[in-house]
Structures are given as C-alpha cells and as structure tokens.
C-alpha cells in the first residue's frame, strides 16, 4: 500500500467526510489530559501531543460491556433464559494513533483472534475499525515508536 500524506489544514474537512460513514475517534484534550474520544467536529481533535493518558485499546476493550441479558419476570415466555447481546459494531475510524499503540492491537490479537479461538467482541471491534496512524515528530525519551 502506498503511504498517503495529508496536510494538517485538510484534516477538518477529511474528518467531516469520514463522519458521513464512520464514528470518528481522535485524541482530544480534557482537563490537561489527552484522551481518545469520539469527535463530532474536526476542530476538536488534538494533533500536537506527546502521548495520550490511556491507550486507545480502551476503544476495543471497554471497561464494561453488556455480554448477556435475561428476563427475571417469571411470567414471561423467555424468563430466566440467558441471551447473548448483539456484538455488532458500527463502522469507526480511529485517527492519530501512535505506531506503538497500533502494534499493541496486533499483540492483543495473539490472545483474542487466533485460529483456535476468536473472542467475538474483540474480532467485531477490530473488523469494524479503520486505524489511521501518525508519526512521532518529537518522541518521548521512553518512546519506542520507531522500533515498531
């Protein structure tokens, strides 16, 4: 695949076009911290940052997630039957992910997406997500982005 360069001035327009088909996530600054969040406006994204407070893996492995549901109403026809929740993911794009964070997603695949075992929530989230990387112009002293 041929690399594509996008000028910073063109990013807000690109995000608006992406939002027509995807839920768009990007780093944003909140109370002095940079976090990955869903954005509704191309101007909200933070492009000049060292690292985010939390890894974007949280978009794929949320702290809480409904996996099953059941009805406790004894009179219901489906009472006390455990039903899996839908794990269908909307299409989404994650912008400005660092190379080390993108590589971390592949490392998690080793546990959750193998020929022997596929975690349905992880696999659906990965399949529904387009990841757009960003290069580090001033890596932190502890950074290893260039090596991954």
Structure notes:
This protein has 148 residues and is an alpha/beta fold. Helices cover 20% and strands 20% of the residues. The protein contains three helices and six strands; from the N terminus they run H-E-E-E-E-E-H-H-E. A four-stranded mixed beta sheet has the order 2-1-5-6. Strands 3-4 form a two-stranded antiparallel ribbon. The protein starts with 10 loop residues before the first helix and ends in a 15-residue tail after the last strand.
Helix content: 10-25%
Structural class: alpha/beta
Distance between the termini: 18 Å
Q: Strands of the biggest beta sheet: in what spatial order?
A: 2-1-5-6
Bin the strand percentage.
15-25%
pLDDT < 50 stretches: none
Largest sheet: 4 strands, mixed
What is the alpha-carbon Rg in Å? 19 Å
User: What's the helix count?
Assistant: 3
Secondary-structure element sequence?
Answer: HEEEEEHHE
Rounded mean pLDDT is 86
> What's the number of extended β-strand segments?
6
Overall 3D form: globular
